Amino acid sequence: MKKNKKSFSDILKAVAEGKIDPVSALHELGALQNPEKLDFVKIDHTRKNRCGFPEFIYGEGKTPEQIIKIIRVISGKKHACLVTRLAEDSAKTILKEFPTASYDRDARVLSIFSGSRKKSKGKILIVTAGTVDIPVALEAKYTAEACGCNAEIVTDVGVAGLHRLLSRLKILHGAKVIIVVAGMEGALPSVIGGLVSCPVIAVPTSAGYGTSLSGLTAMFAMLNSCANGILVTNINNGFGAGCAAARILK
Q1: Residue closest to 95 by CA, chosen among 85, 84, 103, 104
Q2: In angstroms, rounded to a whole number, what is the distance separating the alpha carbons of residues 222 and 237?
Q3: Is the Cβ–Cβ distance between 164 and 154 less than 8 Å?
Q4: Torsion over CA of 168, 170, 174 and 176, rounded to 10 degrees?
Q5: I need a labelling partner for 99 at 20 to 30 A (CA). Which of 9, 40, 71, 220 fits?
Q6: What burial class does residue 129 get, using C-beta atoms within 10 Å of its C-beta: 0-12 exposed, 13-18 middle, 19+ buried?
Q7: CATH classification of 123-249 is 3.40.50.1970, yes or no?
Q8: Is residue 108 classed as helix, strand or coil in its secondary structure?
Q9: Where is 125: in which H helix or E strand?
Q10: pTM of the model as a whole
Q11: CA-to-CA distance for 115 and 46, rounded, in angstroms?
Q12: Along the 250 residues of the chain, how does pLDDT read in single tens digits?
């Protein structure tokens, strides 16, 4: 038999009577709201209540016109807009419609932050093994900031010169979450994982010569790390790392 849908007042009454907790109520309230429909997409405005960050836009494969329509709807709700994997030509078209937006060509990220945003306490530190890993690190940084977090990048401290990393121990120990972005053999997350007590998220990149196998070698090394408790994202997935770090910090 199909259950009757609870109304808003039913859910709020259940919270007041202690029958359900506030977090469960938020999930149920979110489920009662239908996504906003355009002719080609359904926009999930309740994601911020459920997950702590708004609907983001994966730019690859979408036309500039489609992205413009989505941004108008999201920004209309005063939510942060973040478009990842966006080609520069598409970004130029979108920037004409939204002059307050900013685009980072290296990260391929376009962002619009409207008004003042309350940021989470604590800092997410993003560390790169090499300069070539910076675009993925920037994607993680912009994502974390769109989620309302403080984020900072430390670059080029890979294992080929450990003195560079050891000179940054103070900043490593001041972070609440560390995202480590590395290609080649992917060793840096293991080193950092053995130096800090906070959560460490490893992001393998596709940087490296032949047997790096477009990031597979780094990913397998991170998955097999002897530094306990390191979390690993998909290859080049700075966005996923930024979201995961925000969830941890919040």
Answers
A1: 103
A2: 14
A3: no
A4: 50
A5: 40
A6: buried
A7: yes
A8: coil
A9: strand 123-128
A10: 0.81
A11: 20
A12: 445 556 667 777 888 888 888 777 766 666 555 555 556 666 665 666 666 677 789 999 999 999 999 898 888 777 788 999 999 999 999 999 999 899 999 999 999 886 555 667 789 999 999 999 999 999 999 999 998 899 999 999 999 999 999 999 999 999 999 999 999 999 999 999 999 999 999 999 999 999 999 999 999 999 999 999 999 999 999 999 999 999 998 8
User: 242 with 144: CB under 8 angstroms?
Assistant: yes
Phi/psi zone of residue 182: left (φ > 0), alpha (ψ -120 to 50 degrees), beta? beta
Q: Where does residue 243 rank: exposed (0-12), middle (13-18), buried (19+ CB within 10 A)?
A: buried
| CA–CA distance, 23 with 13 (Å, rounded to integer) | 14
Contact 205, 133 (CB under 8 A): yes
